[in-house]
Write a structure and sequence with these properties.
The protein is α/β, with parallel strands linked by helices and 327 residues long. The strands form 3 sheets. An 8-stranded parallel beta barrel has the order 7-8-9-10-11-12-13-14, surrounded by 8 helices. It has a 4-stranded antiparallel beta sheet with strand order 2-3-1-4. Helix 4 runs parallel beside helix 5 and helix 4 runs parallel beside helix 12. It is elongated. The protein binds phosphoenolpyruvate (PEP) and manganese (II) ion. The site of phosphoenolpyruvate has 9 residues, from loops.
Amino acid sequence: MIVTAMQGADSAQIQADLARLGLWAKKLEGQGSTQFVVAAHSSTVALETISALAGVSEVRASTSPHPLVDAQPKVIDFGPAQLGPGVAPVVFAGPCSVESEDHILRVAADVAASGATFLRGGAFKPRTSPYEFQGHGVQALKWLRKAASENGLGLVTECMASETRDDVAEFADVIQIGSRNMHNYSLLQAVAKTGRPIFLKRGMAATVQEWLAAGEYCLLHGAASVAFCERGVRSFDPSTRNLVDLGAVALLAHVHQVPVVVDPSHGTGRRDLVNALAKAAIAVGAHGVMVECHYDPGEALSDGPQALLPEQLRTLVADVQAQGEIS
Ligand code: PEP
Ligand code: MN
């Protein structure tokens, strides 16, 4: 249940009145309004009783386990962009990992020339092997910020640990939670507390309900907004790196009506399939795509086989925009 306070109402008094009725409420300070999310294990109280409390303007009953995700605007503010139905698809593009200052400056220029809106790139890399390149850390965040700002791009980058959250929040417009961390609830809370929008990748074996619940953590703990990114789930078939679950994308876009993005780079692991899956993603209702690119994929420090060349990125952005117009 969500209880909305009237403008200027005494929110401490409302919270005390709710507690008196046995309703355990968490206060949320939103844009221009104060709301209380009432925990599901609270007492059962008639909606009229709550509506009659001093200072309460609206009471919305919800049996959904993710009421804040449901209550997000259909089109969310997402850093410098808007994401959702009826606005042009948003493209997030960049290298898998930031390799040097020159590297990210050059890629950012390619990304800007393609017409994409956001620069992506890992400063902290979750690698399966501890012997693989782990990212340049805080130094890479500074390079990313410079590259994004000089090229008029928004910046999304992953936060892997609470200890580096403040550094990531200082430089990024949007904070990415990677697939491996979707279930890391203490990290979700820590990142949400920065108030930044969150780009929430689906855990590689997460159900849609678990994914939505992770989004609920983000909003409950202060994230400005949350977008859900399908990046492929584990499957029985190694022919592609992962299995891009476009059914789940359609479910999120059309049934849950939440902002959803697809990452066909990690989804397929092959640059020759990225464009086809990006167009398919927009056709089934995705509001954007995230793709990896590199001017010299053979030399990339990570994920070279799935990186688009600059001209392929330009084609992809044009194709995605054209698909957005007919979808
Ligand atoms: C990434 O986008 O850099 C990444 C590591 O992706 P994922 O978390 O989906 O594996
Ligand atoms: Mn990658």
